[in-house]
């Protein structure tokens, strides 16, 4: 790590959380993020729903809401990058302050509320990177005041068709009132059914880009069987487990622990791992899973893979470690796979 990079991280940590995030995006846009070879370890190369990944360590949605720096983050060593959440119309999000570091807990609470520049700005940036390598996906959301939220997801799919390598249906953020209601059986059937129809109409005789479904860690565990069945019925390619939680562990120490919003980072690890196990048991290998929540190192990533995740994503740990963390995790994960006799990531998936 260069002295300049360390100085930048120190400066960012001294800023309020949301300003620090904007500083990080601006630095990455200027080429100041660290650079690492995402394909350094052959053992980490894997295929996720038809996407050839140089490694299974992805950047979760929320970091790059407006698709400003996907290529910089790929260059930092991530195997794939998910931009968004994007809504059809621009929106400011919730009142500030709305992003809080819980440094003592290595956690973050956010109630951003899908603040983003809207679908047209987002699509223009995806168009501008046509022809570049790397897997970059689009995380789709609904506007807070939408009268037909299912249509918002279809509008996102339609506008970004042919631009994004994959799509994620985000119905699990706790920061848009009522959004999580779309995880209910009837609402999900309506959403996924309409989304599948739109997807088939767009694809025609061509192969469709993969579509992932991102779920909450606060679901009743019994919902896993139903969601897996609905996901498979409506052609969902993989399930991302999980988004942020509205629960609060009793041992949080930060003065910000009482802030409203979704909690992510280290305290989410056990809850997200529990939910991942529920979905792994429910799916029985019938649909790939992507593990998210509390990943700080190679051991955390490896644990999710062995629990059933075909790939993983992280974001909150970057607040404390910076984007160079992706390469560190890849180095550690490769060593752990080799030490346990695995020849690939796929061999380790579900090998508890």
Distance between the termini: 34 Å
Strand content: 15-25%
Main sheet characteristics: 8 strands, parallel, barrel
CATH architecture: Alpha-Beta Barrel
User: CATH homologous superfamily, by name?
Assistant: Aldolase class I
CATH class: Alpha Beta
Say what the CATH topology is. Answer: TIM Barrel
Which parts are unreliable, with pLDDT below 50 for 5 consecutive residues or more?
Answer: none
Shape, principal axes of CA atoms: globular
Element string (H = helix, E = strand): HHEEEHEEEHEHEHEHEEHEHEHHH
User: Mind telling me the C-alpha Rg?
Assistant: 19 Å
- Spatial arrangement of strands, main beta sheet: 3-4-7-8-9-10-12-13
Number of domains: 1
The SS-based structural class is alpha/beta
The number of distinct helices, counting runs of at least 4 residues, comes to: 12
Helix content: 25-40%
Average pLDDT rating: 97
> Total number of β-strand segments?
13
Fold blueprint:
Blueprint: H1 3-13, H2 17-29, E1 46-48, E2 51-53, E3 57-59, H3 70-75, E4 80-86, E5 99-102, E6 107-110, H4 119-128, E7 136-140, H5 149-160, E8 166-170, H6 185-203, E9 211-215, H7 223-233, E10 238-241, E11 262-265, H8 269-283, E12 289-292, H9 298-306, E13 309-314, H10 316-321, H11 325-339, H12 345-348
Parallel strand pairs: 3-4, 3-13, 4-7, 7-8, 8-9, 9-10, 10-12, 12-13
Antiparallel strand pairs: 1-2, 5-6, 6-11
What does this entry look like structurally?
With 352 residues, this protein is α/β, with parallel strands linked by helices. An 8-stranded parallel β-barrel has the order 3-4-7-8-9-10-12-13, surrounded by 4 helices. A 3-stranded antiparallel sheet has the order 5-6-11. It has a two-stranded antiparallel ribbon with strand order 1-2. It has helices at residues 3-13, 17-29, 70-75, 119-128, 149-160, 185-203, 223-233, 269-283, 298-306, 316-321, 325-339, 345-348; strands at 46-48, 51-53, 57-59, 80-86, 99-102, 107-110, 136-140, 166-170, 211-215, 238-241, 262-265, 289-292, 309-314. It has one domain (38-348): Aldolase class I (TIM Barrel), CATH 3.20.20.70. Helix content is 37%, strand content 16%. The model has no long low-confidence stretch (mean pLDDT 97).
């Amino acid at each position: 790590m260069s002295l300049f990079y360390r100085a930048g991280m120190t400066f960012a940590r001294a800023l309020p959380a949301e300003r620090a995030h904007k500083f990080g995006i601006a630095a990455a846009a200027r080429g100041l993020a660290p650079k690492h070879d995402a394909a350094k370890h052959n053992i980490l190369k894997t295929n996720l729903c038809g996407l050839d990944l140089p490694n299974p360590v992805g950047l979760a949605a929320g970091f790059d809401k407006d698709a400003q720096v996907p290529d910089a983050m790929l260059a930092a060593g991530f195997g794939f990058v998910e931009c968004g959440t994007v809504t059809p119309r621009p929106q400011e999000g919730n009142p500030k302050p709305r992003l809080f570091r819980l440094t003592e807990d290595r956690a973050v609470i956010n109630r951003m509320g899908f603040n983003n520049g809207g679908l047209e700005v987002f699509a223009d940036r995806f168009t501008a990177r046509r022809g570049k390598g790397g897997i970059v996906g689009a995380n789709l959301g609904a506007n807070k005041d939408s009268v037909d939220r299912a249509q918002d997801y279809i509008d996102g799919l339609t506008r970004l068709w042919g631009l994004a390598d994959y799509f994620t249906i985000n119905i699990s953020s706790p920061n848009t009132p009522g959004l999580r209601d779309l995880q209910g059986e009837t609402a999900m059937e309506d959403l996924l059914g309409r989304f599948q129809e739109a997807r088939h109409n767009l694809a025609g005789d061509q192969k469709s880009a993969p579509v992932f479904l991102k779920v909450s860690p606060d679901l009743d565990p019994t919902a896993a069987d139903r969601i897996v069945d609905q996901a498979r019925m409506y052609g969902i390619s993989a399930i991302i487990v999980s988004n942020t939680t509205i629960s609060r562990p009793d041992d949080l120490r930060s003065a910000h622990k009482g802030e409203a919003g979704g909690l992510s980072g280290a305290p989410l690890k056990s809850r997200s791992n529990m939910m991942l196990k529920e979905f792994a048991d429910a799916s029985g290998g019938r649909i790939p899973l992507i593990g998210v929540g509390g990943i700080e190192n190679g051991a955390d990533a490896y644990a999710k893979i062995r629990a059933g995740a075909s790939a993983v994503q992280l974001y909150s740990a970057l607040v404390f470690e910076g984007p160079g963390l992706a390469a560190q995790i890849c180095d550690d994960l490769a060593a752990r796979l080799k030490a346990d006799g695995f020849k690939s990531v796929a061999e380790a998936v579900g090998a508890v």
